[in-house]
Structure formats: structure tokens, C-alpha cells
Write a structure and sequence with these properties.
With about 240 residues, this protein is of the alpha+beta class. The protein has 2 domains: about 140 residues, no CATH class; about 100 residues, SH3 type barrels, CATH 2.30.30.140. About 45% of the residues lie in helices and about 20% in strands. It contains 10 helices and 9 strands. The strands form 3 sheets. The protein has a 5-stranded antiparallel β-sheet. Strands 3-4 form a two-stranded antiparallel sheet. A two-stranded antiparallel ribbon has the order 6-7. A hairpin with a 2-residue loop joins β6 and β7. The N and C termini lie far apart (about 35 Å).
């Protein structure tokens, strides 16, 4: 399995490049990714992701794992695996309250609190569907683009149909509003970036392969099992979000 820090940076790289989270040394993050190097410098860079890293700590603690950047913990947060199901709902509630309650309007907090105790999983999709719109988008003036931005932030799965140099043609679900609820669309054709100046994280790609997509960047390759886990936990948190949207 890919080392945890290596996988973490694959998903964290693009939002960091766009200035949304993490520290300011994006070029170092990219170099670690293309070289496959893991050292203390990379770990220190990843600890600066104040949105994602506390989720890793929560997942690790709930599963008796000492290292939040261990491979299975990182996979659980970004892709999904059984570690998520072992996180106590009370622990998730406490974590969310500590981190976000003071950053939300008072009328918003009961809505979010209900998610943490109703079965939400500390997967990246939970942050996208339930935290980001109210703590991130609403406060940054992007409400008119909320669905588009949530789709970009969501980790989506795409099946490769063609490689075009620095780009891949994939078939991937999008995010939309249907009858007042968030929904995943049927897979549709789109073009995503996979490299800059001939370097990226998913070089050895073939037709039919699955890739993970984050902010229009093909950031990782997925096995069939990982694709299924990613879809499962995304749909789980989406359904929970829609219960009181």
C-alpha cells in the first residue's frame, strides 16, 4: 500500500496549490509527490492542513493507531475504509463542536450537531457536504457557486477512456440539485489534468483504470475496491446531508 504521507499529499496538493488549505510551500509538496519521498519535512507540511489533519487524528485515536498519517488512516479519510465505522459518534460530535461551533452562526450549529450524532462518517465527503458550505463557502461569498465549488472539493471517481498527454478523458459523476436535494449525476465525460511539465502522480494510466479527482486534478489511482469504498461513503454522507438540507 502507498505510504500514508504520500497518499495524503496526492489529495491535498491541488487545494493547497489553489490556496484553500495547508501551508505556503506548494512546490515542496509537489516535489515530494513526484519523487515519492517521505521524510519529516513532508510530515511537517501535512500537519499544517488544519481542515484534514484533525480528522486523521480522530480516526487514528478511535482505532488505536498511533500515527495519524498511517496508510490505512489516510486512506480512510480521503477514500474510505472500515476504520470510519469504528469512530464513536460522540467523539465525532466533540471534534466538530471544538473546531467549528464558534465559526458558525448560532442558528446553524444545531443542524450540524445533528449530523455528527446521526451516523455521519469522518470521511472527506462529510466535510464537503456538511462543514464546507457553512464554514467555508458561506463566509467567503461563494454561495452563488456553492454546488460547483462543492463538486470541485469532493473526491470523485472517474474511469479513464483516453490519455491526452497532460490530460485524461474520464467518465465521472458530477454534483447537482434535484428536487431541492443534492444528488450525484450519472457519469459524464470530462477532461481532467494529470501533470504539469510532464510530471504528476498518475503517470502509468490505461483505458479502463479508475482515478480519484480533486479540483479537476487526477490525484490518485484507485483499485476497484477503493472506488467502491469511495462511492459508498460519499453516498452515505450525501444521504445524511439531504435529510435536513
Amino acid at each position: 500500500m502507498l505510504p500514508g504521507p504520500s497518499r495524503f499529499l496526492r489529495y491535498a496538493y491541488m487545494p493547497n496549490r489553489l490556496g484553500y488549505c495547508g501551508g505556503s510551500d506548494n512546490s515542496a509538496l509537489f516535489e515530494y509527490g513526484v519523487q515519492g519521498q517521505v521524510d519529516q519535512g513532508l510530515i511537517e507540511l501535512e500537519r499544517q492542513f488544519e481542515g484534514a489533519y484533525p480528522y486523521l487524528q480522530l480516526i487514528a485515536m478511535a482505532n488505536g493507531i498511533g500515527d495519524p498519517l498511517s496508510a490505512k488512516v489516510v486512506e480512510a479519510y480521503w477514500i474510505g475504509n472500515g476504520l470510519l465505522d469504528h469512530v464513536d459518534l460522540g467523539a465525532l460530535y466533540n471534534s466538530v463542536e471544538e473546531r467549528f461551533r464558534t465559526r458558525m452562526a448560532p442558528r446553524e450549529w444545531p443542524w450540524l450537531a445533528s449530523k455528527a450524532v446521526a451516523g455521519a462518517r469522518p470521511h472527506h465527503s462529510f466535510h464537503v457536504f456538511d462543514i464546507y458550505p457553512r464554514v467555508g463557502l458561506m463566509q467567503s461569498g461563494l454561495i452563488d457557486r456553492v454546488v460547483e465549488t462543492m463538486q470541485n472539493c469532493l473526491i470523485r471517481w472517474g474511469r479513464v477512456s483516453e490519455a491526452l498527454g497532460a490530460e485524461l478523458v474520464v467518465s465521472a459523476p458530477g454534483l447537482c440539485i434535484e428536487q431541492g436535494k443534492l444528488a450525484l449525476t450519472a457519469p459524464r465525460r470530462e477532461i481532467v489534468t494529470r501533470s504539469y511539465d510532464g510530471r504528476g502522480f498518475v503517470d502509468n494510466i490505461h483505458e479502463g483504470d479508475w482515478v480519484a479527482i480533486h479540483w479537476s486534478w487526477a490525484c490518485d489511482t484507485l483499485t476497484s475496491a477503493q472506488k467502491s469504498h469511495l462511492e459508498h461513503y460519499t453516498r452515505w454522507n450525501l444521504a445524511l446531508c439531504n435529510e435536513t438540507m
